[in-house]
């Protein structure tokens, strides 16, 4: 886990320990590095502002509940104290454990009150805590890394537009010469300090494209569909067809999904071809025109020429009338 310094204050997000807090014996630190342990009301803890995990697996909550029933809860929940009329604390990690405890009827739990005083430290600390328990899915992890970089840039070089960060990452991956050195150095330093499990080059190639996916595929990744599968499914234009495959994607390999996408693409091509089938009367007209080119009209009787002239004039009038309307 990264080490963080307490730099300044952050919108009065932290506050001094409450009277009921007690200093931990011996070294005065909690199990997770905080300076205080306190028994806190679970209903007075709000969701972390930097909680990057968007979905919580019901199975994981049930597993935690079973473990707590058997062994009890002997740990502590990492939090920071906040100034909020409705809450005393905010989760840094342990959101799922807190939910399991509440379902089991717990109203209070031992809290490790950490001192995190700026948004960058909060972002990094929350990311490390959540990732240590269970890895984030690829999209959540991507958004978390971008948020950490945004906080680092805001703290060190000034606030930047969100769209600028992916551009800077691509420039670093391509080793582009003309870049903003201060911003690039900030990104590289932040990447190294947090020891992100993916390189900047791989992040640019495989993670940034996820941001351009439609919402149904982003949601699918957050539910467990692999990024590679989601990118394949994005090749399907029809939303209903894509939705059907998304439902099956969890049980399919990437190779199976690629094959399914190819079959859908083939069917869509055939459908489009059928829809663009030439109008039958127009086919007849083209065939007649081809035959007309072979006729020696010098040998055609005057009566037939007269009839043919009228027919051609009528066709010409109809085509010009339709053309003027369209």
Automatic annotation (TrEMBL):
<dbReference type="InterPro" id="IPR036086">
    <property type="entry name" value="ParB/Sulfiredoxin_sf"/>
</dbReference>
<keyword id="KW-0175">Coiled coil</keyword>
<dbReference type="Pfam" id="PF02195">
    <property type="entry name" value="ParB_N"/>
</dbReference>
<dbReference type="InterPro" id="IPR050336">
    <property type="entry name" value="Chromosome_partition/occlusion"/>
</dbReference>
<protein>
    <submittedName>
        <fullName>ParB/RepB/Spo0J family partition protein</fullName>
    </submittedName>
</protein>
<feature type="region of interest" description="Disordered">
    <location>
        <begin position="1"/>
        <end position="30"/>
    </location>
</feature>
<feature type="domain" description="ParB-like N-terminal">
    <location>
        <begin position="39"/>
        <end position="122"/>
    </location>
</feature>
<dbReference type="InterPro" id="IPR003115">
    <property type="entry name" value="ParB_N"/>
</dbReference>
<feature type="coiled-coil region">
    <location>
        <begin position="250"/>
        <end position="277"/>
    </location>
</feature>
């Amino acid at each position: 886990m990264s080490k963080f310094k307490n730099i300044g204050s952050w919108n009065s997000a932290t506050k001094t320990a409450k009277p009921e807090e007690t200093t931990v014996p011996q070294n005065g630190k909690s199990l997770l590095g905080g300076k205080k342990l306190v028994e806190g009301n679970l209903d007075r803890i709000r969701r972390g502002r930097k909680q990057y995990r968007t979905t919580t697996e019901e199975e994981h909550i049930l597993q935690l509940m079973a473990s707590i029933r058997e062994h009890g809860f002997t740990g502590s929940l990492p939090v920071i104290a906040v100034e909020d009329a409705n809450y005393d604390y905010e989760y840094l990690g342990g959101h799922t454990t807190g939910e399991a405890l509440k379902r089991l009827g717990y109203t209070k739990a031992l809290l490790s009150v950490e001192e995190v005083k700026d948004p960058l430290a909060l972002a990094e600390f929350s990311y490390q805590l959540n990732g240590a328990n269970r890895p984030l899915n690829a999209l959540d992890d991507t958004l978390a890394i971008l948020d950490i970089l945004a906080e680092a840039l805001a703290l060190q070089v000034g606030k930047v537009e969100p769209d600028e960060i992916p551009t800077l990452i691509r420039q670093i991956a391509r080793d582009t010469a003309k870049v903003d050195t201060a911003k690039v150095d900030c990104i590289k330093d932040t990447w190294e300090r947090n020891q992100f499990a993916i390189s900047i080059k791989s992040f640019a190639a495989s993670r940034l494209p996820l941001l351009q996916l439609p919402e149904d595929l982003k949601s699918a990744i957050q539910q467990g569909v692999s990024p590679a599968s989601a990118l394949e499914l994005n090749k399907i234009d029809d939303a209903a067809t894509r939705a059907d495959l998304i439902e099956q994607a969890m049980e399919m390999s990437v190779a199976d999904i690629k094959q399914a996408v190819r079959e859908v693409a083939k069917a869509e091509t055939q459908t489009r071809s059928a829809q663009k089938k030439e109008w039958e009367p127009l086919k007849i007209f083209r065939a007649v025109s081809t035959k007309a080119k072979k006729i020696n009209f010098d040998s055609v009787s005057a009566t037939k020429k007269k009839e043919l002239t009228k027919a051609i004039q009528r066709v010409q009038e109809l085509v010009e009338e339709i053309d003027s309307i369209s």
